[in-house]
Hints:
Structural class: mainly beta
Number of strands: 11
Helix content: under 10%
Shape: globular
Strand content: over 45%
Amino acid sequence: VQLQASGGGLVQPGGSLRLSCAASGLAFSYYATGWFRQAPGKEREAISSISPGGSRTHYADSVKGRFTISRDNAGNMVYLEMNSLKPDDTAVYYCAADPSLSSLIDGTPPPSYWGQGTQVTVSS
């Protein structure tokens, strides 16, 4: 199983980025997927998740109204559209997959599969 995250970079406050995660080696349409992030010196935070069919989504309060998660089961992709970015959004962002949506909502238990992470830096 491989999850390949991409799309991170340096962006100014108020800007936007779109993260992508390409999945392979698993029956993608049967897995919930989501995004976590970890900033230096902070614990890993679950920020957004989506059910296998895409009908249910969940967002942490810290990103609600600014970030949008989506998925393309035909292409084995999951996306995170990030708008109105703030310096506090600076972190390494990880995509993850698990048969259980609950693992992706709060990270307990940890999801079965993780991507390698992509750095997002919000700074002027």
